[in-house]
Structure formats: C-alpha cells, structure tokens
Design a protein that fits this description.
mainly alpha; 2 domains; 15 helices
C-alpha cells in the first residue's frame, strides 16, 4: 500500500514538473515582452540575428517551402486525430480520464508552440522598431499632406511604368524577382545599415491557390524562417510583396512596419520594376485613404494615371474580384484577431498604415526620400 502511495506521489510530482517549465517560460516571455527597450537591445539586436540567420541557412538550401510542408503535415495530423477521436466517441470508448489527459496534453502542446513562436520570432512584436531606428515619432498626418504625397507618387508612378516599356513588357521569372529583392536589400543597406539581410530564403508558396482564396499575398513562417510569396498575384505586384515578407525575416513583425520596410527596400532598388511595384502599392492604399476625405481629388488622381498604369489597376482589381469567396472574410477575421492579440491595435487595417509611415518619413527626410531619389 505504501509503495503504491509513493508511486502516486512520484507520478503527481513528475506531472507538476512537466508543467513548471513551460508555464515559467510563458511568464518570463510575458514579462520580457512588456519591456520594449529590453526586447530591442537584447533580443532583436543580440539574439534574433543568429536565430534568423541559422533558420535561413538551413531552410534556404531547399528550393521548395519546408514551412508549407510542415503546415500540411500538421493539418493532416489534426484531421487524423479528429477522426480517431470521433470514432472513439461514437463507440463510447472514450473515458472522462482519457479526455482529461488529451485536453491537458493539447494545452501543454500549445504552450510549447507559443514558447517556440516567441523565441524564434514573436518577441519582435514588442520591439521599439523602425520608429526608433529612423527617429520617427508618430504616423498621424493631415489631408493636405496626403494629397501632396499622392501628387508626387502619381508623377513617379507614371514615369516608372513608362520606363518599363509598353504593354508587351515581359516580366522576369519569379526566381529572378526573388534574387532582385535580395539585391534591393543590399541597396537600401547603404542608407540604412540596420536593414541588413543575409542568407536568402524566399520561396513560392506551395499553397498559392489556397492562399489566394484566403486573401493573402504572402506570409512568413516563424518556425522555418522562410518567406512565402503567393505567386498567383499579378507579376508587377510580386516585387513589393517579396520585400514585405523579407522585412518580416529581419525582425519587423508588425504588418505596418513590414509594409514600410518593404517599401523602403523596393523604392531604393536600382531595378525599375521594384520601384514601380512599391509606388503602385503606395498609390493604391493612399488614394483609397483619400477617397474617404476628398472623393473628387481621389478621382482626379486616377484620371492622371497613364494608360499603362490604369491597365495594371484593372488587372489587379480583376484578380481581387476573381478570388472573392465565403472563406476569405472568415480567414481575415481570424487574422485580424491574431494581429490584435500581438499588439497591433489596428488589426488587419495595419497594412494601410504604410501611408502614415511614408508621410512622416517624407516630413523628416524630404519629398524625394520617399521616392528613392535621394
């Protein structure tokens, strides 16, 4: 009797120890993430560069996305688990004790996923970020500043599109675009050394079809360090998206900051297509913002675009409309909650905060700086 009691106590003690480590690590992560200056100086500047370099060194060797394969295996595992669970319930072979164990095991599993996510990348959500690095104080702006920005963007957008050639322009292969994006970060590093990117690991998403219908242009896998790009997108839009996803790889977790960093990389590229792609994105989100405050000016901006840019806008609009479905709103709602849970108050609308970053950068460094001309 005494031996059985001792074994019971030992078992309970082992279970307690099994929970102590993950719970302790979660608490530590919560404390650390509440101190942005510590995350910036200790995690982002000292630890994360080695983590990200190692990830990209290992997984960048594969031509296909290892992260996508990992996601696919995980989804299959969940389906198989659910089917087995359903069968056991149907056969009434599932006891309350077994259910409790499965539930606790699942919770513990999610704790370890949360820990891994934060150590590998997620703590970057708590950084001081690009605002601290460029000494930008806020992203608020006036309607006049928005109109002034768009005036410059329209002119440069037309110029870069004409420079690409006529409607028969042949876009480079996707792999070439990825290589050029890597070079774009080399170019911007000259002005901003903190945007250093080494060990390229950018992949075409294996799940591009599904990703398109979910409404995403690309995504970053924090567990493999790979940047996945939805190559179903119109070709002229892929360069900017690639630079955006690469920004996530070098530690810009916030979508608004990744959009801004991706813009800086693309607009400072020596490649005309990349400059055009960046300007196309900026015009799209900025003019949409102007529609809310000055409808007439927004319409006039569209009329001021040359015919080639207007054609690209139709291509992009048709692509968006062709992918609309019942799944996309659900996926975006889920992702919106994910972003808000990770300290992005604007949720999915944080992508549109690119305009605020660009205007404040323009205010501080001059009009030509946001067009890559200075």
């Amino acid at each position: 009797m005494g031996k059985e009691t001792n074994k019971s106590y030992e078992s309970q003690f082992e279970q307690w120890l099994g929970w102590l480590l993950p719970v302790s690590l979660v608490v530590i992560i919560q404390i650390v993430s509440s101190i942005p200056s510590f995350v910036e100086s200790c995690y982002y500047e000292k630890l994360y560069p080695y983590i990200s370099l190692f990830q990209r060194y290992i997984f960048g060797r594969f031509q296909f996305s290892m992260g996508d394969i990992g996601y696919a295996i995980f989804i299959i595992y969940l389906i198989v688990w659910f089917v087995k669970f359903s069968i056991l319930i149907y056969k009434k072979e599932y006891s309350f004790l077994l259910l409790k164990r499965q539930l606790l095991s699942t919770v513990k599993g999610f704790l370890w996923v949360y820990i891994g996510f934060n150590i590998l990348w997620g703590l970057n959500y708590s950084r001081l970020g690009i605002a601290n690095q460029l000494k930008l104080k806020d992203t608020t702006y006036t309607n006049q500043e928005l109109k002034d920005l768009l005036c410059d963007v329209v002119d440069e957008l037309n110029t870069t599109r004409i420079a690409l050639g006529d409607s028969d322009y042949i876009y480079p292969a996707t792999i070439k675009i990825f290589d050029t994006a890597f070079n774009a970060y080399k170019d911007v590093k000259i002005k901003m050394p903190f945007l250093t990117y080494n060990n390229q690991s950018v992949k075409s998403s294996i799940l591009s079809g599904m990703v398109s219908y979910a409404g995403y242009s690309g995504y970053y896998n924090p567990f493999s360090g790979e940047a996945q790009v939805n190559t179903d997108l119109p070709k002229f839009y892929i360069p900017y998206v690639t630079c955006h996803e690469m920004a996530h790889q070098i530690g810009y977790a916030s979508e608004s900051e990744a959009s801004f960093v991706g813009y800086l990389a693309a607009i400072n590229s020596r490649n005309t297509l990349f400059r055009y792609s960046a300007l196309f994105e900026l015009f799209t989100v900025a003019n949409a913002e102007l529609f809310n405050t000055d409808f007439i000016s927004a319409i006039l901006n569209i009329k001021s675009l040359n015919s080639l840019v207007k054609r690209d806008r139709r291509i992009y609009r048709d692509y968006i409309l062709s992918k609309q479905n019942y799944v996309e709103p659900v996926m975006k709602t889920v992702y919106d909650q994910y972003l808000k849970a990770n300290k992005q108050k604007s949720g999915i609308n944080s992508y549109n905060e690119l305009v605020g970053w660009v205007i404040h950068y323009r205010r501080k460094y001059g009009a030509q700086s946001v067009l890559g001309l200075k």
